């Protein structure tokens, strides 16, 4: 959900030659939440860019998922790419994203993050040092 974090993830994926996975996932999100009138157009665009033989940004999905997706796009609808999108999501979740979290790119992103003041409070505010020492009994 963080645009800066997503941009950094995309940069990382470009270096790993797998940026098409995130682009495919985002295109599927556009299909799912985009305008109803553009569904057939978006499905065709996703197919041409990511799934067609010789596609310029081809994504690697298993044959069963590809079969279901190709069957589904014959009658395009908002959720026709769900199986393929989930397959790519799981690839990123199990493989690329954990590597991104260990990368210098991510570490630099964290180092430059703005920390909201409310999170800077002490963990145990009741353990503050007293300003004046109490009189001895």
Automatic annotation (TrEMBL):
Under InterPro entries, the record lists: RGS (IPR016137), RGS6/7/9/11 (IPR047016), RGS_sf (IPR036305), RGS_subdomain_2 (IPR044926)
| GO biological processes | negative regulation of signal transduction; regulation of G protein-coupled receptor signaling pathway
Q: Name one GO molecular function term.
A: GTPase activator activity
Q: What Pfam families does the annotation carry?
A: RGS (PF00615)
Tell me the domain of life.
Eukaryota
- Report the residue ranges that make up the RGS domain in this protein: 1-110
- One cellular component GO annotation, for this chain's record? cytoplasm
- The protein's name: RGS11 protein
Cite the entry's keywords alphabetically: Signal transduction inhibitor
Read off the lineage from the record. Eukaryota, Metazoa, Chordata, Craniata, Vertebrata
């Amino acid at each position: 959900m963080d645009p800066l974090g997503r941009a950094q993830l995309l940069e990382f994926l470009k270096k790993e030659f797998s940026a098409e996975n995130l682009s495919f996932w985002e295109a599927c999100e556009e299909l799912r939440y985009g305008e109803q009138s553009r569904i057939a157009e978006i499905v065709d665009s996703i197919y041409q860019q990511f799934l067609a033989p010789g596609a310029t940004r081809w994504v690697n999905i298993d044959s069963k998922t590809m079969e279901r997706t190709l069957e589904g796009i014959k009658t395009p609808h908002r959720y026709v790419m769900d199986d393929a999108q989930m397959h790519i999501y799981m690839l990123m979740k199990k493989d690329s994203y954990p590597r991104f979290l260990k990368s210098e790119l991510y570490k630099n992103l964290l180092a430059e993050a703005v920390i909201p003041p409310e999170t800077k409070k002490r963990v145990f505010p009741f353990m503050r040092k007293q300003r004046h020492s109490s009189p001895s009994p």
